[in-house]
Amino acid sequence: MKPGPYGDPVLVTPTAYARDWISKNAIRRAQELWQQHDPDARILDILCRVDYDDQVRTGGIVTALVPSTPVAASEPVVEAVVPATRISGLQDRLTFDTFVPGRGNEFAYTMSRQVASWADGHFNPVFFHGPYGYGKTHLLNAIGWEAQAKRPDARIVYLTAEKFTSTFVKALMDKSTSAFKDEVRGADLLLVDDVHFIGGKTSSQEELFHTLTSLIENNRRVVFTADRPPTQLNEIEARLRSHLSSGLVCALDVADQSLRMGIVERKLGQLSQRLGVAQCPRAEVMQFLADRVPGSIRELEGAVNTLVASAGARLGSLTLEEAMALLQPNLKVAVERRVTVDEIQKLTADHFGLKQADLLSERRTRSVARPRQVAMWLCKQHTTRSYPDIGRRFGGRDHTTVLHAVKKVEELLQADDQIARDVEALTRKLRSN
Ligand SMILES: Nc1ncnc2c1ncn2[C@@H]1O[C@H](COP(=O)(O)OP(=O)(O)OP(=O)(O)O)[C@@H](O)[C@H]1O
């Protein structure tokens, strides 16, 4: 609870979405409770953090919140601590409330909550890595918001590695590096996003190394994200790499079917509430989104947004065909033509100079295993088959083998140019067939 203009009490929510939800569902009860403690019957206002900060900045909020009648010690007291500043760079919507945990991110989610609770940390730094678009930035933001809510007095600094580098280089040019060092090394919790971007930047790496060791020596928390584990950050010098690995290294995986479905449901629920659309789409439309939109959660989110924005009030009554037509641009291959596992196997085997039977065989040499993994990944992207189903069609393999293959190819797509070219060529062939 915070002071508002003219001393009106203001309930400040971390996000605009939370503001809207509370306005709709809980503000009346909150008013009643507030007024039990405030005989002046001042109106309880509600603002999201961004609007609140704007009002503070423009001088709209100046007075401290003091109930006009002291609250008896035995009565519940509304906390009126105002964080010193908003953490720069955090996005409002990326909180734990909007994050859907599930297979692939469960451990990262649990560890994030632990860091955010300021629990005694045995692990420092914590390093999250995983493919693009699967929630690393989201978790880092969520840690920032929750850690600040738990300890409003703490200094929390959030930076992308790019920002770290550009600010540091500017400080070098302005001869103001000590201010930069004070700022970053004075943090109680430092959150560095996309640390792989610091690769090849020698002076910034040196600075990050000293920042990290200084923070850890002083018992401050540090969290990193990257697209690869520290051991694979080849453009980062060995000493820094080793320190990045010295706490907890935690992978985020690609989302499985049920997590994708959970995310579709959550996003649709949030969007339809925000836009005042009463109904959710039919089950088959939601299933279609989860199964057939290719790519990461980012693309899935884009497809959900497209569907809600283009269907508007018709969302709940859309048939599958209508939804597919609206989603056409998001679906690329998936909607244009039905691709089969058999077709993918033949094309992939041919591309790598193998026989289809090799992909189904027990052979484990790299020259067969890698094309098999690529073919499994293509099946996941371009067909609606589940992991177990794909496994069965690859010589009766277990679903965990397929899951591993999909994850491996996602990693290789970032790190191995040749695989990226192979996958691109195969995707083109699938489209033109
Ligand atoms: N489990 C999840 N629950 C809800 N939303 C998610 C989840 N995972 C990802 N998202 C959403 O997907 C989008 C992409 O996630 P995010 O930006 O965190 O990915 P990233 O792993 O940091 O990727 P990049 O390395 O490209 O920045 C965001 O809008 C995020 O909110």
Automatic annotation (TrEMBL):
Its main location: cytoplasm. Residues 122-250 form the AAA+ ATPase domain. Keywords: ATP-binding, Cytoplasm, DNA replication, DNA-binding, Lipid-binding, Nucleotide-binding. Residues 340-409 form the Chromosomal replication initiator DnaA C-terminal domain. It comes from the Bacteria. It is found in: Cytoplasm. One of its GO terms (molecular function) is ATP binding. ATP binds at residues 133, 135-137. Pfam families: Bac_DnaA, Bac_DnaA_C. GO terms for cellular component: cytoplasm; plasma membrane. Residues 312-433 are annotated as: Domain IV, binds dsDNA. GO terms for biological process: DNA replication initiation; regulation of DNA replication. Residues 1-87 are annotated as: Domain I, interacts with DnaA modulators. Plays an essential role in the initiation and regulation of chromosomal replication. ATP-DnaA binds to the origin of replication (oriC) to initiate formation of the DNA replication initiation complex once per cell cycle. Binds the DnaA box (a 9 base pair repeat at the origin) and separates the double-stranded (ds)DNA. Forms a right-handed helical filament on oriC DNA; dsDNA binds to the exterior of the filament while single-stranded (ss)DNA is stabiized in the filament's interior. Domain I is involved in oligomerization and binding regulators, domain II is flexibile and of varying length in different bacteria, domain III forms the AAA+ region, while domain IV binds dsDNA. Oligomerizes as a right-handed, spiral filament on DNA at oriC. Belongs to the DnaA family. NCBIfam families: DnaA. This is Chromosomal replication initiator protein DnaA.
